[in-house]
Amino acid sequence: MFEHEKCYLVGENPTYDNLAELMFRVGDYDRNPNVLEELTKLINDILLNKDENCDILIQRTHAALKNNGDHLTILNYTKVFAIQKRQLPEDHPDIGRTTLSYGSLLGLFVLIVAIVIPLLYGSTNCRHLAIRTLHTMLALKHSLLLDEARPTLSAKYRAFEDLLRMRSIEYDPLSDPINIIKTIRSTCSMCDVIPKPSQCQINKEVFEHDEHSIDTYWIDYPMRKFQRNSDKLLLYLHGGGYLSGNINDYSGIECHLSYLFNVTILHVEYRLSPEHPLPAAVDDIVVLYCALLRDNMSPSQMMIIGDSAGGGLSLLIVQALLAHQLPVPRGVIVISPWTDLSTSGESFTRNDEIDLIFTCHDVKWIASQLLDPNKSQLSLNNPLLSPLFGSFQGFPPMYITVGTAEILEDDSRRVLKKAQAVGVNVTFEEGLHLMHVYPIFFSYFPEARNTLDNINKWIQTIFTEKHN
């Protein structure tokens, strides 16, 4: 018997018995292309060299990791925990060549995956790539399964439902509401689900009017210089139950819409509850709208678009503009709008068991955090908070889309009925068996993309029609 020394890297949990097994993950490779070459050379040395002292290899490994700093090819939380020795028995003379073959194939496979997956999904965000890869695997499973009760749904949509069922947002219902809201804000981020494309241009601008300031962000995927006196503009009012949401969460969505609709989007960072109870958000948007009018933006150039709470806020804004006798925008697009904070719609009961985002209890708890405790006379069905109970007389054309598998379904249907009763031009799209705000998940399933295409056609039609 004679003894060969072989060194190899192991991961955080060294449970691998195969010789020369390398546990590493590749991510952000394109930020420093020299990193991959350097680590590949080091790995090959470890695989090939039978005689080099393991202590030297340890030093070289640590040096490689340290020198690359923030540009590690290895994921931030993947570390080298040990470099171990193995004894090779005499009766395995070809083990070196076998190990090299397996190691080379593994390295080649990882390299190919590291290149192909980011190109396939158009992102180097590692969390996003993990989500998209898992979604693709689930979609393959669902492509082999038939949902007889919901035959219109694509396999990709049903796979996305599985992703939602896997999510876990844990909080103590008896804890301080402020702490719960902080948990919601930190765990419900959209930036990994729909990340911002690197080509999208975002610029911050603070608008001031009547000693009131509000932060906004210009979203311009076509990357052209916006002309305020002529170009079309969409004001985007994000969702989040009036409790959460910001530019980081929504930049990926807004960049895509800017590209798809071929318009500049202005993201509005309106104030959130409970720090700033409703109707503070309404005041912010009205101030911004007045500032845009002051800067020679024509109402005929502007539309307002919002999802969920942002959809309800969009309707509140138009009602506030009409109350102040200000000109209204060219059109309003609302995606699964929350229009009734009192939760009086029948769908809050009918769809409570099938809604993948909220329960009726969730919505009631959120609504309870929106009011100023010092103004108890302001009830949840007050038109200043719930646009469903306000007037739709004088509204511009509206586009409403809602899923039939969400508890807010009747919030949209009741607005449709009231608006049509006073002669408003309303286009209504029902997403059969679809979830809350389904169009914003355009990267994952065709149902979302189809609805966004319909909205795009509607926007272009409204903007080209003769305006009174």
Write the SSE topology.
Blueprint: E1 5-10, H1 33-48, H2 54-68, E2 82-87, H3 95-121, H4 126-143, H5 155-166, H6 177-187, E3 201-209, E4 212-220, E5 233-237, H7 247-261, E6 264-268, H8 280-294, E7 302-307, H9 309-323, E8 331-335, H10 347-350, H11 360-368, E9 398-403, H12 409-421, E10 426-431, H13 446-464
Parallel strand pairs: 5-6, 5-7, 7-8, 8-9, 9-10
Antiparallel strand pairs: 1-2, 3-4, 4-6
Helix pairs in contact: 1-2, 1-3, 4-5, 8-9
Shape: globular
> Which class of the largest domain in CATH terms?
Alpha Beta
Strand composition percent: 5-15%
Tell me the radius of gyration. 27 Å
Determine the N-to-C terminus distance. 95 Å
Which regions contain 5 or more consecutive residues with pLDDT less than 50? 1-31, 69-90, 92-100
Output the helix-strand order. Answer: EHHEHHHHEEEHEHEHEHHEHEH
Average pLDDT taken over every residue: 80
CATH topology of the largest domain: Rossmann fold
CATH architecture of the largest domain: 3-Layer(aba) Sandwich
What is the number of helices? 13
Domain tally: 3
Domain Alpha/beta hydrolase fold-3: 234-438
Protein name: Alpha/beta hydrolase fold-3 domain-containing protein
Pfam families: Abhydrolase_3 (PF07859)
InterPro entries: AB_hydrolase_3, AB_hydrolase_fold, GDXG_lipolytic_enzyme
